Amino acid sequence: MTTPAITRAMFDDVMVPNYAPGKIIPVRGQGSRVWDQEGKEYVDLAGGIAVTSLGHAHPGLLGALTSQAEKIWHLSNVMTNEPAIHLARTLCDLTFAERVFFANSGGEANEAAFKLARRHAWTHFGPEKHEIIAFRNSFHGRTLFTVSVGGQPKYLEGFEPAPQGIHHADFNDLASVEKLISDKTCAIVVEPIQGEGGIMPAAPGFLEGLRELCDKHNALLVFDEVQTGVGRTGHFYAYQKYGVTPDILSTAKSLGGGFPVGAMLTTAKIAESLGVGTHGSTYGGNPLACAVAQRVVDIVSQPDVLKGVEARSTRLRQGMEAIGEKYGVFDQVRGAGLLLGGVLSEKWQGKAKDFLNAGLDEGVMVLIAGPNVVRLAPSLIIPESDIEEAMVRFERAVAKVAG
């Protein structure tokens, strides 16, 4: 039987229609360059939505994966494995954490974080202390619990009834949090920089204020660092950039460099509330994922790599600002490190997808963060020459859209 040629049209015939992928199918990547089925080359400023932290086909990650693949792939959590213990130890050494739970994605890491927050409150204070405060325009995953905590109603529509006891305040508005918090609050959940909500950084004093409110009300502070973690902001985790330590932290995306892995980090005292049998994951902490993530962490945590993120950020920001000023398309470029967002000016509101599509036509891959923000989240080690070429191509795309 002859295997038919794979085309974009086939997607609509065989896949559930919850995605609307672009018209190209990438088939090969090397560093920060990607090639499609037709052999056309693209500079990748999307990074698989802030995932491919070391680019495509990184030799260190290939070596870690193939080496582990020759040993053992999977055991389940009936037994532990060496790569999982090694990675957990490393994450604890590099952060505030003392205990780690491994999952397969950011959504699963957040699910574990939110369950731990409720379980901890139930254990120490009773069932009445179960309420969670999150923020409008936040995004925490696609499970029913995480999409309910997320502050974008469109993702919950049609899946109600949602878990109860979840309230939403306004990001960067401490007063709105103070109106909601009470002794029934078990946790405040926040992204240090809102990702899907438009690359919106926390304002000075905001995270500090949340820490104080949590301490006052015996609530846990949960940082969702799925998108900001593992070097993305120029610090290993963004909480280190802001100088505010959470009680629980979720991480994924860049952690595996493209291999599915997620983790929840917390203290030993808080972790006690998830005793044997209270939570689990069949694939979480599997040797393949942990071996790859270990190599990512070993590379990204190096001071020269983190310093390089800041240098690359400056060049990308300058390029985007220059394009924005020349064509009048961006009001500002905001974010941190290599998580940047060009905020569209009033004239171009709602047109972010147009710039993404024009970018593909010109050979550069970018993202959007809502209808009004063009998002960049490239490899943390993207070569300067690729940044320069990407800006040339993106300017052509902007010129095409702006007329």
TrEMBL record:
N(2)-acetyl-L-ornithine binds at R142, S281. The modification N6-(pyridoxal phosphate)lysine is found at K253. Homodimer. One of its GO terms (biological process) is L-arginine biosynthetic process. InterPro entries: Ac/SucOrn_transaminase_bac, AcOrn/SuccOrn_fam, Aminotrans_3, Aminotrans_3_PPA_site, Class-III_PLP-dep_AT, PyrdxlP-dep_Trfase, PyrdxlP-dep_Trfase_major, PyrdxlP-dep_Trfase_small. Keywords: Amino-acid biosynthesis, Aminotransferase, Arginine biosynthesis, Cytoplasm, Pyridoxal phosphate, Transferase. This is Acetylornithine aminotransferase. Gene3D superfamilies: Aspartate Aminotransferase, domain 1 (3.90.1150.10), Type I PLP-dependent aspartate aminotransferase-like (Major domain) (3.40.640.10). GO terms for molecular function: identical protein binding; N2-acetyl-L-ornithine:2-oxoglutarate 5-aminotransferase activity; pyridoxal phosphate binding. Belongs to the class-III pyridoxal-phosphate-dependent aminotransferase family. ArgD subfamily. May also have succinyldiaminopimelate aminotransferase activity, thus carrying out the corresponding step in lysine biosynthesis. It catalyses: N(2)-acetyl-L-ornithine + 2-oxoglutarate = N-acetyl-L-glutamate 5-semialdehyde + L-glutamate. Its main location: cytoplasm. Its EC number is 2.6.1.11.
